[in-house]
Each structure stands twice: as C-alpha cells, then as structure tokens.
Amino acid sequence: MSEEIQTFTTEYLDDCANLYVEVFNSEPWNEQWTIETARLRLFEILNTPGFIGFVLRQDEVLGFVAGYCEQMQKGKGFYLKEICTHHDKQRRGIGTKLLNQLMNTLTGMEVTAIYLVTMKDGQAEAFYTKNGYQRSQKLIVMSKRFYK
C-alpha cells in the first residue's frame, strides 16, 4: 500500500491514541499516558472549534498532526497541539510531510502564524528548527501545578 495523507477524523482516534501512548511514554518524554487518557486528549482536540488534523498512513497510521485555528490580534493563528510519528519511522520525512500538508491547508485559509509548545534543546526542537520554526523572543511558557 502506498503512503497517503488523510484528514484526521474520529475513524483514526483509536489508532492515533495507541501511537500517542507508544511514542510519548518512551524516551525522551517518559510520560505516563494510558490509551484512555490519550484517546480523551485527542478527542478533545478533534472537537475543538477550528480543528485541523491529518494522519499519514501506509497499512497503518505512521503519524499524525493536530491542532486548531483561533482568532489572534491580527488574523488567524494555528495552535499546533500534537504531532506524533511512529518511533521506528522517525527521521524518514513523515513529520515534515504532515507539516507540509498542514502548511498548505493553513495558507489557503489565510492563517498568519503557527505556534506550539515543545521540549527545548531536544530532537523535537531540532525537528521544528529544521522545518523553519524558531524560538519566540517574546513569549515563554509558564505553569503552575496544583494537584497532589
């Protein structure tokens, strides 16, 4: 079967949740997702107004990208919430193909900016840098934990 990029719909939710757990529970993230929590996260993103997402398949889902458009001060912005590529298929252009599909779609919608949050100084940042993204000089990410 040849490689194909399709719109991310609920049809792909379970496959993408399984991939999400496999990837983000491993190095370098070492998170603790379950299939249920990953499925719920992706379901929530999928149902956010302005959602745009794609999956790349070749017999199975090899990767996906997902996020949503929102109104910014000057035009529309796109919040890239998740991009995920099968461990064994990384560094083979899947993520770049997904970003290119996303860019083509967003350009046609007159989106003026894409923003995202990722781990600094790692392979994810290197991937985004390679694809033309740069660290913001104006913005930082802040968090506050309030659970036990």
TrEMBL record:
Family annotation (Pfam families):
Acetyltransf_1
Return the InterPro entries for the record.
Acyl_CoA_acyltransferase (IPR016181), GNAT_dom (IPR000182)
Q: Which PROSITE patterns match?
A: GNAT (PS51186)
**Which stretches make up the N-acetyltransferase domain?**
3-147
What name does this protein carry?
Answer: GNAT family N-acetyltransferase
Native source organism of the sequence: Brasilonema bromeliae SPC951
